[in-house]
Amino acid sequence: MTASQFDCQYCSVSLLGKKFMLKDGNPYCLKCYDRVFCNYCEECKEAIESGSKDLCYKGRHWHEICFNCAKCNHSLVEKPFAAKDERLLCSECYSDECSSKCFHCKKTIMPGSRKMEFKGNYWHETCFVCEHCRQPIGTKPLISKESGNYCVRCFQKEFAPSCNFCKKVITSGWITFHDQPWHKECFLCSGCRKELCDEEFMSRDDYPFCLDCYNHLYAKKCVACTKPITGLRGAKFICFQDRQWHSECFNCGKCSVSLVGEGFLTQDKEIFCRKCGSGMETDI
After folding, report:
1. What is the CATH number of the domain that holds 213?
2. Which of 68, 84, 132, 170 has the lowest tally of Cβ within 10 angstroms?
3. What is the Cα gyration radius of the chain?
4. Is 112 inside a domain boundary?
5. How far apart (Å, rounded) are the C-alpha atoms in residues 130 and 138?
6. What is the rounded distance in angstroms from the CA atom of residue 113 to the CA atom of residue 125?
7. How many domains does the chain have?
């Protein structure tokens, strides 16, 4: 480099015997270098001159003495920090301001530590435990009640109903019969052992029966049609002495007119309307 080449690239002043800065291979006096190339501090907005240390983070620059936590103002030089909403925070302030709080102990869940999330709340892993056995739940299945969270085993032990038939815990949908819970697969006809959960059924002496078994074992038979009288779905029937009729079968044995709510006459096992039974001995 010749003497003429050793001049400030910007103001042409000789740099012989003076401090200077190089930029893209060209020399600059300190004054020109600062004027043309220096960065401005994010904090104080003053130029970061060539004689000062320039601290840079994601394209932003600070004087060394200005590189501080935005909350507690402690220096961040050579210390861990984090950014939030364009602010730089030391680890302690970032944790206090930005980290989740444990739903159980209310303390900060420090960045990098494992946290559990459930229904919009957060726990330390060691705080997220079963309310009954106090063992960590982790990622295992759980059941939640107002009183707390429970592992499946404890919930079943403490709260789940037991089947009236097999006495085992019921963990999903069940049938209620005589105010007692039953597994669907345990709710069977007491006669033929058919599952009744999706069937119509009748009860006898606190035992359930499918319609076929109930009709075969217990149902009265209609005198007229000989079919069982079940009374299902509000069906009405007529009783007289030791005989029964479906209401639609309670008709005059001669003219077939309905006798429901009407006076009638009997002879042997037959029933008649007053008109057809005129002159007969038994009048009801």
Report:
1. 2.10.110.10
2. 84
3. 47
4. no
5. 10
6. 9
7. 1
